[in-house]
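protien #1 (seq + structre)
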Amino acid sequence: MKLNALILLTTAAVVSGCSTSSDLDLSKFVDDPCRLFTGNELNSEDEFKTPELKDNSQGPSCFWDPVAMTRPAYIITFSTKKTFDALKEKAGKGKTFRETEVAGYPAFVSNVGDGQGTCDTTISASDGAAVEVRITTNFRAEPEYPIVCELSEKLAGRVVGKLKA
């Protein structure tokens, strides 16, 4: 049931559209990416701790940690300190790497491993910046585990929708 709710939630909100340049503006949320979503908007079947705003080596990020440790966690990072191209070059060395588009924006899906358990979808934004959307679950028994890259890519579409609104 949890997986169905997550897939329905993410599929229904995937943004379609086309962009010919990376004009995705992060300024509305760059001070606090935690304002992008509530835990309920991420996954209505799970309960989350208070989101944590952090400033890491890439830039500001928000971590939505589930109350139940077996459930997926969500991290959205606005990479204002490392460029999309630099992130792409590094990710291309991993075991899982695929270039794609998210709502018309250049993007890539990556994971250092086999693409299960943890996966990032990184979207090109304005001025060389990027948005990294990560979903992680470390429990193989969870239904999200084998399809975490697909879910990350869908959530990335929702992030683009929030940034464009």
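ok now protien #2
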Amino acid sequence: MRKFIWGLLVVVFAGGLVYLGLNSSKTLMTSDSGKITEKAFLADVKKSQAGQQEFANMVITTVLEKQYGGNVSKSDVQNAFDTQKAQYGDSFKSVLASNNTTEDQFKTNIKNNLIMTAAVKANYKVSDSQIKQAYKDYHQNTTVSMITAKDEDSANKAIADLKSGDSWATVYKKYTTDQTYAKQDGQIPVFDSTSTSVDSAVQDAAFKLEKTGDYTTSPVKGANGGFYVVQLDKTTNKPSLNSVRNKLTDKIVTTFLNDQNNNSKVQAIIGKILRQQNVDVKDAQLKNALNSYLTAGLSSKSK
């Protein structure tokens, strides 16, 4: 099953249950053996681990969106969505289905990830040595066009056609399975090495191309299982450290978030924010749902 490039933060945004909004005597099921009402169902959900986690997710989402949602624009979300969609081609819908999600839910997950990054960034101290190392590894803004091939064989055929002299536009129209950027013959938005929406394999391949018009001479296999042909359209000079400091910080924070060894530290940061916002759970059954967050970091100093 092909997974999304954008790593969902399961430590917080698991998503799924909508039943916590139910609290009536409406009948959900009848049978000769009895019935189940919304109220009875909710009571069971609240006691379950999944229900407790979903309540925690809802609280965290509400607080973080209020405090840090302003740092994430609709265009940020749409650009990330479009870039990822282009890398799945005509398999995008089936990938959504296999991951039990819809386009709207996927956009929400992207938004939540960006908000989480903003929240951690505001509460995580990035050292100068981390910034210097990130700058050393940094690759500047690059613009590429990309053929999202049906499979490896199709990618090889596209490369063979390019080598025989066919234009990029002709080969793109013949072999790509994605139409997101069809008007631009597959040219995706500019990106650099801090991008979280462009497949790392595509980035690596793009950064190795030297001249405008150069293309990959073997298929690029993405982390999502897709195959691509990448052409370099434009590159820029490496900017000064100070001009990209903010992007480097975002990259460091994203790496920090994606490392499962840091889950306890992430929980401590979330807990600090929840305590600052005076989160107080009123329902007795849900009283302990946020304990792992509200108590995280209290016994030791966190970053």
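Confidence is low (pLDDT under 50) at residues 1-20.
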